[in-house]
Amino acid sequence: MLYSLRMLLMSAHFILAGMIGILIGLRRPFNPDNSRLCGRLYSLPAMRILGFKVNAEIKNLLEHERSCVIIANHQSNYDLFVFGGVVPARTVTIGKKSLKWIPFFGQLFWLAGNVLIDRGNSQRAKKAMLATTDTLQHKDTSIWVFVEGTRNKGRGLLPFKKGAFQMAINAGVPILPVCVSTYSNHMRLNHWNGTDILMKSLAPIPTKGLTQDDLPALIEQCRNQMQACIREMDEQLVQGR
């Protein structure tokens, strides 16, 4: 019963937030700060509706150096709400082109100045990724990437895609990892107690002076740090139950 009520409220909220967000986007199309505003518009009411309780240690994210490449683990569609409330100013996201066709949300995602990648067309995808290098270097804007490329559904980190790291090296900007505990397997959407989630941002990892030859080591370093952080948060939640 509670689950059904939450889903009904979430459906109404999703449509309403999308409509308001589109109006914001139309007033200031492609403004890189639209993502921050709309992230909060989606996130803050949704977290109450879903009963998600996030304990966030994100000092590194709040004090981050612009520009940078922010990388995060990706578990489920609920990540929109979990991460939406902490998106920093002047930060855009990379997403697949098909997102553009989701009613309300897709149009907002495009108007917010986010980068849409056509994964089925390697030349267009490469061109879009090259454009992000210019954004990082000259437009005082950071880029948020779900670095696994798809949802891991709570089964642990998937292999990381190279694109985020290539962007960071090409632009000479830091990589800032943001981790969220494994929640998608433990959601309590039919319980009043809700779902406890931990979030932590790690220290930025510099890339200045690195070349593409350093790519494998950089990816391994970031993945190892994030994996250790997620494991630690998961253990902390288990001990607190």
From TrEMBL:
It comes from the Bacteria. It catalyses: a 1-acyl-sn-glycero-3-phosphate + an acyl-CoA = a 1,2-diacyl-sn-glycero-3-phosphate + CoA. Its EC number is 2.3.1.51. The chain crosses the membrane at residues 7-26. Pathway: Phospholipid metabolism; CDP-diacylglycerol biosynthesis; CDP-diacylglycerol from sn-glycerol 3-phosphate: step 2/3; Lipid metabolism. Keywords: Acyltransferase, Lipid biosynthesis, Lipid metabolism, Membrane, Phospholipid biosynthesis, Phospholipid metabolism, Transferase, Transmembrane, Transmembrane helix. Residues 68-183 form the Phospholipid/glycerol acyltransferase domain. GO terms for cellular component: plasma membrane. The keyword Nucleotide-binding does not apply. One of its GO terms (molecular function) is 1-acylglycerol-3-phosphate O-acyltransferase activity. Pfam families: Acyltransferase. One of its GO terms (biological process) is CDP-diacylglycerol biosynthetic process. Belongs to the 1-acyl-sn-glycerol-3-phosphate acyltransferase family. The HXXXXD motif is essential for acyltransferase activity and may constitute the binding site for the phosphate moiety of the glycerol-3-phosphate. NCBIfam families: AGP_acyltrn (TIGR00530). This is 1-acyl-sn-glycerol-3-phosphate acyltransferase. It comes from Iodobacter ciconiae.
